[in-house]
Design brief:
The complex is a heterotrimer. Chain A is α/β, with parallel strands linked by helices. Chain A has two domains: 149 residues, Response regulator (Rossmann fold, 3-Layer(aba) Sandwich), CATH 3.40.50; 136 residues, Response regulator (Rossmann fold). Chain A has ten helices and 14 strands. By secondary structure, chain B is an all-alpha fold. Chain B is 73% helix and 1% strand. In chain B, strand 1 and strand 2 form a beta hairpin. The longest helix of chain B has 26 residues. By secondary structure, chain C is mainly alpha-helical. Chain C has a domain of 198 residues. Chain C has 15 helices and four strands. In chain C, the strands form two sheets. Chain C has a two-stranded antiparallel sheet with strand order 1-4. A two-stranded antiparallel ribbon of chain C has the order 2-3. The chains are: A alpha/beta, B mainly alpha, C mainly alpha. Chains A and C meet through helix 1, helix 3 and helix 4 of A and helix 1, helix 2, helix 3, helix 12 and helix 14 of C.
Chain lengths: 355, 333, 317
């Protein structure tokens, strides 16, 4: 064989291999009849005794906040006995990946998808497709677009969270009469949830607390180091700042650490959303007076309970209350199952919580 | 280095420009000076001792890693895995020292962290030097894989109880200067010594500027490349030990994006991605500029709308620095 | 004869085909339901945007270049379309403007690279930050949603049993394949990758070709952005974040040398198929998102090591 035309031969081979590849895929795909797929086509929906598969999708896997929700969900699944729980979500918090996962679960034919949407708009088409396939869709932790889900397991509305944080801050600063500059350290500038909270916080401040002056909103890109740095810089650039809102579980400890290291414990208040474990040292040290959150394990527990009830037909649209096992009766307002009030962790009660 | 004779250039102006061209770092330095003047004129608080100290402390870990990555680039390779290496190192260090986990004594944990850093660096280096896989591919693969590994190590729970001895590494001071700055100074001193006083330094530059010639001259290119990757791994571990204890919580997202920041610093500092060219002073200026920008934007108090433009402004700064650098070096010829 | 055999064996495409066959064999053992046509067709919607960008990326890497800014160009184009739509312009006009924005973004990259001789890695690293920053600034980081049904159908409709995006990809693939293998331009692309300076001396319009390729990359990214917006009905500044790494991984696994001059479009397709199936299956079977990262990272390193060893073997025999 002459060496002069390796390119041509190479070429021919390449086309052949492509053809072979495609043929292979088609042959690999076609011989599997759909009925053969019982290993993942999990249940027929009219049979209550079979296992009900519930997918619990967090905004971001790996956050202790969601891990503690998953623990509560696990407990509910054990208690119910007929529930198989799948807990998975994007480790990078990407809305697109979340939507892809929903599409996968739809194809697998699970019974319930419970999602905490990173971006309601992005996941909405995927959720509608799931509903069209007869899958029960719940949103939990954060709401999806209304027509893309059956129920919302609501621990607190965006409005309540935002108001809770602002009210807490005002109380920590010493009442609505105190004049103060405040700043927000958020996650990403594009983070959908945080942006909704920020909007509600702004209107609440405008309407209720004319003495509170919001001077800056800065992103931390979910990087504790950046939250730390941004808080440090803000304190120096705006010497009158008296309070920081750390409105993600990463930016809150970062901001608190910056205040602590600047020696401004007691002069500059920090509040926000985070799990008690990550804020414990600051609450006990006095840098942070109050942490706003809710009982995450109960949220996960309630979500699974609602999911199971929905799949077995125990819960229907129009019900006004729901029996949530160890949590007692929970109110249903329209299509929202309410968990209850938000919790404010302070020096006095933080030792009761471990998550 | 291109030593064009500038004897014929009579005007002092031109001579100054030629001087600047030869020492690119000075141009960058002047730019930083200009920026500082403008900002401190608008907001004098920028020049306060506390602020300069904070900037230095923030820059410390980036500076430490940049010392390693610069040598990798000078040797003609690239390392984009440092961000995920930091993640793995932070997670493993956290687990080793945490009171509720492994509870190892701090000094053992520190030694192990350094060893893990060197180990990951060696792995990169072995694949690049001895198997011959392009460095951008090896480190891209590691960037992805190690991020996944970090998540698995952390397993959805963060470490919130770092012992005080470890926190001291990040927050402590000696002679009222933060420990992290002492560490940075040591790393810089060792790097300067390495580049200028040891044969290794010259060999790294020789390898990057002309590998064939270096090989013919009897240098072991493979061991030099192995060395720069291991060195970067070690420095990444040092940077992790300096930066993570500044915070009280070890989360699973530590180090995300650091690789891009470090490469940007090193490149803005005039290091060539083709190898053989790069100065520590340039890299230091690059680090200073990149750390300053975001602080500067806050001190300018541009208002809420500007917040959303800050990434664009940072990008334009980088773009401007790079284009100016290239424009100058193109006109040198 | 043995030489030919060895040569075929050492081709990256052979190795990849083997890997893909092994993967499918493994899947059919572990979880055959994953292989249903219906499942495969639906899941394929996750890859088309990446695949469309991978075509110009292959050509760029063949010239020993790289384009890190594709994800940011996606975001800038998506925001252009979104903001215009929000301002009341008609959807075709908004799409046209988005494609134009992407093309200009790509052209600027190409201009800096070819005319100012800045290394592509450096310049696209800088434009990566800048373009996304501009998108964030224009949109004030807010999403635009509620596009008309006629537009979102582009992302969901199927034609002859394949999604619209797949047809776009196929058309692009076939036309680029034809240009590369039947026109002089193809030879020039390989020549630039093998030796830039020699190509210049032999009269190849290196600058023009480079500018053209990066512009094409910008255009393809804009196209991918529109498909994404149509599929998810949302335009936002964080679209396409990190996609550049996925694209580069696919191209490199497909056997394209990062130093340029060696590799094929078919290899890229096989690379895309491999990472797509791996990614989807790991998530399908294990429900552990963090595994995907580890598997993909190792897959990249291992496949390149193997390709390297095979080529080494062939050269020494």
């Amino acid at each position: 064989m002459k060496k002069s035309n390796p390119r041509k031969m190479h070429h021919r081979f390449v086309v052949l291999s492509l053809l072979a590849g495609i043929t292979f895929i088609f042959t690999a795909c076609s011989p599997t009849p759909p009925s053969d797929a019982s290993s993942t086509q999990l249940v027929s929906k009219d049979n209550n005794k079979k296992k009900i598969t519930i997918c619990l999708i967090p905004k971001k896997k790996g956050l202790p906040y969601f891990t503690s929700c998953a623990e509560g969900a696990e407990e509910a699944a054990m208690e119910l006995g007929n529930v198989e729980l799948i807990y998975d979500g994007p480790t990078d918090g990407s809305p697109e990946k979340q939507a892809s996962m929903i599409e996968q679960y739809t194809l697998k034919g699970v019974d319930v998808i419970a999602v905490s949407p990173n971006d309601p708009n992005v996941v909405a088409p995927a959720l509608r497709k799931a509903r069209a396939r007869g899958i029960h869709v719940l949103s939990w932790d954060a709401d999806a677009i209304q027509d893309s889900r059956d129920f919302f397991v609501n621990q607190a509305t965006a409005e309540a969270i935002a108001h809770g944080m602002v009210d807490t801050m005002v109380k920590d600063l010493g009442g609505p009469k105190t004049k103060a500059d405040v700043a927000i350290v958020t996650a990403y500038l594009t983070a959908a949830n945080q942006n909704v909270w920020i909007e509600h916080m702004k209107t609440h401040i405008d309407q209720q607390y004319p003495h509170l002056n919001l001077v800056a909103i800065k992103p931390s890109d979910e990087d504790q180091k950046l939250a730390f740095k941004v808080t440090q810089d803000l304190m120096k650039a705006y010497p009158d700042i008296k309070g920081f809102f750390g409105i993600s579980s990463v930016s809150f400890p970062g901001a608190a650490e910056a205040v602590k290291q600047a020696g401004k414990t007691g002069q500059v208040m920090v509040t926000g959303l985070a799990t008690p474990n990550s804020m414990r040292s600051y609450v006990e040290g006095g840098t942070v007076k109050s942490v706003v959150l809710w009982n995450t394990a109960e949220l996960g527990y309630l979500t699974i309970k609602v999911g199971e009830a929905l799949a077995t037909g125990k819960l229907k649209q129009g019900d006004t209350s729901f029996d949530a096992g160890k949590l007692g009766k929970k109110k249903i307002a329209g299509d929202q199952v309410l968990l209850g009030d938000i919790l404010v962790f302070t020096k006095d009660n933080i030792h009761q919580y471990d998550f | 280095m291109n030593h064009t004779d500038d004897t014929r250039k009579t005007s002092g102006w031109l001579r100054m420009i030629t001087y600047l061209l030869r020492h690119r770092a000075i141009g960058l330095f002047l730019f930083i000076g200009l920026l500082t003047t403008v900002v401190s004129w608008i907001n004098p608080a920028f020049l306060s001792g506390q602020n300069l100290r904070d900037i230095a402390v923030q820059a410390a870990p980036i500076c430490i890693i940049s010392c390693g990555v610069m040598l990798v680039l000078v040797a003609g390779e690239i390392d984009i895995s440092v961000g995920s290496m930091m993640g793995v190192l932070a997670a493993s260090m956290g687990i080793m020292v945490s009171a509720s986990r492994a509870q190892l004594p701090p000094h053992v944990a520190i030694a192990l962290t350094l060893l893990i850093g060197i180990g990951m660096g060696l792995f990169n280096g072995l694949l690049v030097a001895y198997v011959g896989v392009p460095s951008i591919i090896v480190t891209l693969g590691m960037l992805t894989a190690l991020r996944g590994l970090t998540e698995i190590i952390m397993n959805g729970a963060w470490i919130t109880d770092l012992p005080d001895e470890i926190r001291f590494l990040g927050t402590g001071t000696i002679l009222s200067i933060p420990l992290s700055l002492w560490t940075t100074a040591c790393v810089l001193a060792v790097t300067i010594w390495l580049i200028h006083r040891t044969p290794i330094g010259r060999r790294i530059y020789a390898t990057g500027s002309n590998p064939q010639a270096a090989q013919l001259a009897g240098l072991s290119i493979k061991s030099i490349k192995l060395f720069v990757f291991a060195w970067t791994g070690l420095l990444t571990a040092v940077a992790t030990l300096v930066s993570v204890p500044q915070l009280s919580v070890v989360d699973s997202g530590i180090g995300i994006g650091t690789e891009l920041l470090v490469v940007t610093c090193v490149v803005v500092g005039g290091t060539s991605v083709n190898g053989g060219v790069g100065t520590l002073s340039g890299v230091l200026c690059g680090v200073a500029l990149m750390t300053m920008i975001s602080t500067v934007l806050i001190f300018l108090k541009l208002g809420e709308h500007a917040t959303y433009w800050s990434r664009a402004i940072q990008g334009l700064f980088i773009l401007g620095a790079i284009l100016a650098d290239h424009w100058i070096s193109n006109h040198k010829k | 004869m043995k030489a030919i055999f060895l040569r075929i064996l050492s081709l990256p495409e052979t190795f990849l085909s083997c890997l893909i066959i092994t993967l499918f064999a493994l899947i059919s053992q572990l979880d055959p339901s994953f292989l249903q046509w219906e499942v495969q067709r639906s899941l394929s919607s996750h890859i088309w945007e990446l695949a469309i960008i991978a075509i110009p990326m292959t050509l760029i890497i063949l010239t020993a270049g790289i384009d890190l800014s594709v994800g940011s160009i996606m975001s800038l184009s998506a925001i252009t379309a979104g903001m215009l739509f929000q301002a009341g312009s008609s959807m075709p006009l908004a799409c046209g403007a988005a494609l134009l924005t992407g093309t200009i973004g790509g052209f600027l990259n190409g201009f800096f690279i070819a005319r100012m001789r800045v290394h592509p890695l450096i310049i696209t690293l800088a434009t990566m930050a800048t373009y996304r920053g501009i998108a964030e600034g224009i949109s004030q980081a807010k999403p635009v949603s509620g596009f008309p049904a006629g537009f979102t159908r582009l992302g969901q409709d199927e034609w002859l049993n394949l999604p619209f995006a797949a047809w776009l990809f196929l058309i692009m693939f076939v036309s680029v394949f034809w240009v590369i293998h039947r026109r002089a331009l193809g030879l020039h692309v390989y020549a630039i990758g093998n030796n830039d300076t020699a190509s210049r001396f032999s009269g190849i319009h290196v600058d023009r070709i480079l500018i053209g390729l990066y512009t094409f990359s910008g255009f393809a990214s804009a196209l991918a952005a529109l498909l994404f917006v149509a599929r998810r009905n949302t335009a936002k500044a964080d679209i396409g974040m990190g996609i550049e790494l996925g694209v580069i991984t696919a191209v490199v696994i497909g056997g394209v040398s990062i130093f340029g001059g060696r590799g094929t479009l078919v290899g890229t397709c096989l690379g895309l198929l491999l990472i797509h199936e791996t990614r989807e299956f790991v998530s399908w079977h294990w429900n552990r998102d963090e595994f995907i990262l580890i598997v993909l990272g190792l897959l990249l390193i291992v496949s390149v090591v193997f390709q390297k060893l095979l080529r080494h073997k062939q050269n020494s025999s």
